[in-house]
Design goal:
The complex is a heterodimer of chains A (176) and B (194). Chain A is 75% helix and 0% strand. Chain A has seven helices and no strands. Chain A is globular. The model of chain A has no long low-confidence stretch (mean pLDDT 91). Chain B has 194 residues and is mainly α. Chain B has seven helices and no strands. Chain B is flat, with a radius of gyration of 21 Å. Helix content of chain B is 81%, strand content 0%. Classes of the chains: A mainly alpha (176), B mainly alpha (194). The interface between A and B is large, with 110 and 95 residues.
């Protein structure tokens, strides 16, 4: 396994930043495709373990990216990937934020919002299915994924409960 | 954001406010952001929050970070953006890296590995539920459903590169959005006529 240079990571995640339609979650299939399938920088098991850690920690979803960077190149990798993921999008938001109000009633703005929404949904569902397939190495785990999807879809309870419940089940050896 | 719209935070309040938002959210921070920004601190009205959320979600990149950058900029220019963004990311970054190093140290423990496998499966379920919720709220015309399906199949089944998919599908989807908005407007106008 050849690890990428920090510059290469920064550029790669900088491009991810501008492709993240609807946030970091929409990027999961593309990140998996690149770091696991294409370059073999980590296994699918590593990828899902990092995702689990990111979800179990507080903060925005984008910290998953920091963990991927950490796995690839330690703390510098984490910082570089996070910065790459945040900087281009932040600069764009800074620029657009000044003029956004002016386009409040512009039909183009509404068309863009409306047009991008279905793509975000397709990407997020794709992320969910990819992760569910990758994590369900035993049928019990598939059941946990399905139960957690159903519970958090139907209830507004803090999702941390479902994560904690699954951790307990796993820790007591009931999921393997 | 003038005095008439709400409270204008100082620079340190801005940093600390977003620091708190970063610490509070599990599985996404948006609900917490809304509570702090609108209900507790009154930096934004409900309407302004919804507006900025639209911006954060329409632009690429992390949604909450986009909002932090814009709110920071409106209060204190680019310095405000930097402070709000750093405030949001600082604590979660430290926490998640600490957790990851701990995991690295104890990864040989079968119990921990299995617990984490459970968390990973449940977390995958959360992502599916998020997608489901978004889909429930979406305007469901044939074009939008087709676009959901196309994006899903492209990344999950065909495993196509995201960039190529976006270059092809984004213009089509925005065109469809434009089309259905116009049709709805026409329907409303003809309905309004006596």
């Amino acid at each position: 396994m050849t690890t990428p240079s920090l510059t290469a990571l920064f550029l790669r995640f900088g491009l991810f930043s501008l492709m993240a339609v609807g946030g970091a979650t929409a990027l999961i299939p593309e990140m998996h495709r690149q770091v696991v399938d294409l370059h073999g920088w980590m296994t699918t098991a590593d990828f899902t373990a990092l995702f689990a850690i990111a979800q179990a920690a507080p903060g925005p979803n984008v910290i998953f990216v920091s963990l991927i960077g950490w796995k690839l190149a330690g703390i510098p990798g984490a910082l570089v990937c996070t910065l790459g993921m945040c900087l281009p999008a932040a600069l764009l938001a800074f620029a657009v934020g000044r003029i956004w109000d002016r386009f409040q009633h512009s039909p183009w703005r509404r068309a863009i919002e409306r047009g991008l929404a279905p793509l975000t949904i397709g990407l997020v569902l794709g992320s969910g299915c990819l992760l569910a397939r990758a994590t369900s190495t035993y049928w019990q785990l598939g059941l946990v994924a399905a139960a957690s999807a159903a519970l958090s879809y139907c209830s507004s309870r803090n999702p941390l409960w479902w994560l904690a419940g699954a951790a307990l089940l796993g820790g007591f050896g009931l999921l393997a | 954001m003038g005095p008439q719209d709400g409270v204008r935070p100082t620079r340190s309040e801005l940093f600390l406010g977003f620091f708190k938002i970063g610490l509070s959210g599990f599985g996404g921070v948006l609900p917490h952001a809304r509570r702090l920004l609108v209900d507790d601190r009154r930096w934004l009205t409900d309407r302004q929050f919804t507006e900025l959320l639209g911006l954060g979600q329409t632009l690429p990149g992390p949604n909450v970070l986009n909002m932090a950058v814009v709110i920071g900029a409106r209060c204190h220019g680019w310095r405000g953006s930097v402070l709000a963004g750093l405030g949001l990311m600082a604590a979660p970054l430290v926490i998640v890296l600490t957790l990851a190093s701990l995991y690295g140290r104890f990864a040989h423990s079968a119990r921990l590995t299995q617990a984490l496998a459970g968390v990973a499966a449940a977390a995958a379920g959360l992502v599916l539920a998020t997608g489901g919720r978004l889909a429930t709220k979406m305007e469901r015309d044939a074009g939008s459903l087709l676009m959901v399906l196309a994006a899903f199949l492209a990344v999950f089944w065909l495993r196509l590169p995201l960039l190529g998919m976006l270059v092809v599908l984004a213009p089509v989807s925005i065109g469809l959005g434009w089309h259905s908005l116009r049709r709805e407007l026409q329907a409303k106008q003809s309905g309004a006529r006596p």
